[in-house]
Structures are given as structure tokens and as C-alpha cells.
Amino acid sequence: MAEGHSDQGINNAESSDNVVDGRTVIELAYRPQSADTLVGLRVRERIRRTGLILRGVLLFLSVGNWLVSAVVRGSADVFSTAVLLLIVLLVWGYPRLQAAQVQRLVGWQGEYRAVVSPAGITCRTDHGTLIQKWSVFQGYRETAGHFVLLSRDPSSMCLDVLPKRGLYEAGDLERLRAILDQYTPRV
């Protein structure tokens, strides 16, 4: 089920009392994909709603402007139609562009090895290690193929996406869900 396996992880996981029970540590190994980031961005957008509202207002105003200009002139203007199509394309494509940009930033680091434990989440690549305690997260949301953890940052700019395809064993899914439920709320 996982894309790779690493011997690093359990021995490197830290807990508050330096004792980690093997049943409370879950390891994932995966290569990040643009689709993973897109899922995370969509979850964040649904929770924050401001992006959805702003994009909806922009689309509504653009369509309204196009309709008014078409009614006044009696036919659709080529320029205003092109502008409307550009705005529709930008509204639809912006999250995809963001996901592609994030992929360019993280994709070169290769395989990610994440360890989820009572201490938090430790993510390693060949180029670095990131350790995040549970206090960093405001909560998580589960999707069909991912767990998306949102930061406490008021602007919610940071998010972690744990793809389920990175789990080693089928039983790890339930154990991961239990750890997340214990240390951070569902949002």
C-alpha cells in the first residue's frame, strides 16, 4: 500500500515521556503529488469560506457585467466575452495553479516519511526534517484519500496533507484516525 519503506521513523519519533508505544505510532511513506495539495487547498477553502465567497462574487459580477453589456448593445461584445472567459478560467484554475506551485516547491525533495505519534508529526525527506507538535494544529478533516491537518494560524496558510496511500498496512488507517481524534479535533 505504501510507495516505499524506510527504517527511519519509530526510533526517531519523540513523545513527552520519551516512551513511544508501537501501537500509537503510525508511519507513512509517499511522494507528494499536486492532487494531494489540491485536496488540502479545497478543504481549507471550505472551512474558511472567504475564498469561495470572493471567487463567487467575482464570478457573479463578471457575468452580470457581461449580461448588462450584451443587453445594452443588443449583442455580446467580443472583448467582454473574452474577459468573462478569462475570469472564469482564473476562478476555476487558481487552486490548481497554487497546487502546482506547491508541488514545484516540495516535489524535488523525493519521498516523504511521516511519523504520527503522541508527540505530533515528524516528516523527513533526504533534505530535511520537520517536527510539529499537536498544539500547532486547529484540527483535521478526513477526505476519501487524505487526512488534512489545518494550522492554528489565523490565516490558515499552513496545512499538512497525509495521503492514505502512504500507509503500510490496512489496520494503520484506523490507528491513524484514532491518534488524530485523540490529539486534534475534527473540523
Describe the structure.
This protein has 187 residues and is an alpha+beta fold. The protein is built from four helices and seven strands. It has helices at 34-48, 50-73, 78-106, 171-183, and strands spanning 26-30, 112-117, 120-124, 129-133, 137-142, 146-151, 159-163. It has a four-stranded antiparallel β-sheet, covered by helices on one side. Strands 5-6-7 form a three-stranded antiparallel β-sheet, covered by helices on one side. A hairpin with a 3-residue loop joins strand 5 (137-142) and strand 6. Helix 1 (34-48) crosses helix 3 (78-106) and helix 2 (50-73) runs antiparallel to helix 3 (78-106). The two termini are 27 Å apart.
Number of helices: 4
Largest sheet: 4 strands, antiparallel
The gyration radius over C-alpha positions equals: 21 Å
- The arrangement of helices and strands along the chain is EHHHEEEEEEH
The largest beta-sheet arranges its strands as 1-2-3-4
| Average pLDDT over all residues | 84
How big a fraction of the residues is strand? Answer: 15-25%
Helix content: 40-55%
Class per helix and strand makeup: alpha+beta
Shape: elongated
The separation of the N and C termini measures 27 Å
Number of strands: 7
Low-confidence stretches: 1-20
